[in-house]
Amino acid sequence: MFAIKTVSLFFATALMEIVGCYLVYLWLTQGKTAWLLIPAGLSLAAFAWCLTLHPTAAGRVYAAYGGMYIFVAIFWLWAVDGIRPTFWDMVGASVALIGMAIIMFAPRAS
Q: Which residues form the signal peptide (predicted)?
């Protein structure tokens, strides 16, 4: 159950970070309305809050979260940008997820 909760929380956290940054990107590079900065700020605040919900050392959470972020960014590339990930994108995302799992779920001395 811990693994499912951790992975789900990392996925939601990454989605919030990407949405927040993407909205700023739309405003800055695509000429979209500045009103996008309000949901962007809320999304980025939720992202930061979600990182505090893990019951382990912050440094370990931040390091492991990076693996999930890579996976979600590749998914975003396909789902939102409409660019199909390459084989190597998928290999890289898989390696990142394996790294996340090693960092978060390796046995530790109490």
A: none
pTM: 0.86
C-alpha to C-alpha distance for 64 and 73, rounded to whole angstroms: 15
- Residue 40 CB-half CA count within 13 A: 15
Q: What is the pLDDT of residues 93-110, one digit of tens each?
A: 999 999 999 998 888 876
In a domain, 110, yes or no: no
72 lies in some domain: yes
Tell me whether residue 101 is exposed, middle or buried, using C-beta atoms within 10 angstroms of its C-beta: 0 to 12, 13 to 18, 19 or more: middle
Report the C-alpha gap between 62 and 43 in whole angstroms. 18
Residues 37, 27 contacting (CB under 8 angstroms): yes
